[in-house]
């Protein structure tokens, strides 16, 4: 990649032959606060089996194919540089139920990563995704991460809208046979956004 400018502008890229995109965020300025709706709260992961079960339930509502326990081992306990007590958090509703989750990971090279962002369907559309992203970015900015990355799927228009609204911008990976530009054009059009500048890998 070309060096990213030191701005709050961010980037996203679809891998050429997979449904994933990758985003970059350079947090040189304070993150715009996005508070949770009234009654909701951020709660750190405490390591209990009940929390693991709730994490699996939330993530199976869109990120994972089922609630098999190995997904927590693979995605959290065995994920490089992830400390679940520090990095993993939930959003709880007014009744204390865990209804959304994300992790903010600082890798050994200093790069931040937004990992496993999920929410139960009933709580979507309330601004919780925006608030979780801002919370994670604030955490990673506090840990002096010069760049933050994330991945998502090109059919997740609501998530991509959240990332674009936070300042993320698409990155096109260098591959002469890639269809990423066409895919990104389609995503931007589907969202009803004006064309955005893409960052090109070299």
Compile the SSE list and pairings.
Blueprint lengths: L9 E5 L5 E6 L15 E4 L4 H11 L10 H8 L6 H4 E5 L5 E9 L5 E8 L8 H15 L5 E6 L3 H9 L5 E2 L7 H12 L7 E2 L2
Parallel strand pairs: 6-7, 8-9
Antiparallel strand pairs: 1-2, 2-7, 3-4, 4-5, 5-6
What does the model show?
- It is a single chain.
- The chain is an alpha+beta fold.
- Helices cover 29% and strands 23% of the residues.
- It has 6 helices and 9 strands.
- The protein has helices at 49-59, 70-77, 84-87, 128-142, 157-165, 180-191; strands spanning 10-14, 20-25, 41-44, 88-92, 98-106, 112-119, 148-153, 171-172, 199-200.
- The strands form 2 sheets. Strands 1-2-7-6-5-4-3 form a 7-stranded mixed sheet, with helices on both faces. Strands 8-9 form a two-stranded parallel sheet.
What would a concise description of this structure say?
The chain has 202 residues and is an alpha+beta fold. 29% of the residues lie in helices and 23% in strands.
Unreliable parts: 1-20
Structural class: alpha+beta
SS elements, strand count: 9
Overall radius of gyration: 17 Å
Overall 3D form: globular
Average per-residue pLDDT, rounded, comes to 85
Amino-to-carboxy terminus distance: 6 Å
- Helical fraction equals 25-40%
